[in-house]
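Handout, page 2. Input:
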Amino acid sequence: LILEFGPDDFQAALPSLRLAFSYFTPREKHYMLTTLFEHLGLTDLRPMTELSVDVAAAAQALAIEERVFAAIEKYRLEAECD
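Output:
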């Protein structure tokens, strides 16, 4: 289903997709990603590296990201596709 989304539809769905995928464990997300890549014929996967970020930095990054998405929506900065 997601593969059929156009760029605008995919961008509009991102917040909901992010929320939906937040309930999965990293292992489950990795399995889904591996399955998707295999379906797309992308079999050259590198092992996941562990990201070490403290909680404060992660929270700050999330807050910045939320402000960026709010600005994109507020000022209608979505990419136009031909």
